[in-house]
Amino acid sequence: MFEKLLSISEGTTALIVGAVIALIICIILKRNAKRKRLCDERQNFVRLQGKAASWNVTSIVLLMALAFILIYEGFSFAFYLIGGIYLLHCFSLIFTTVYYNKKN
Length: 104
Description:
The chain is mostly helical. The chain has three helices and no strands. Helix 2 runs antiparallel to helix 3.
């Protein structure tokens, strides 16, 4: 029991440390890009196109994961977890679309 709890805490700690390191790297890269004036209109367009393609791929992968879990495990915790993540994924698109449409 203690070993399982220890491995969970180690995994959680590693996840948090990894997220902090990734955040620090993003901040440093963003500052360097601003300093070198790399953030122009073309770069923003390319970044937005990449985000749109990534959104589509993520939606397809989540739906495939839902189908896989439903077929092999049925209505389990994993099914509801992935389903909730997919709903959050879709609602975030709705909310950000409404927000940016009102902003423009």
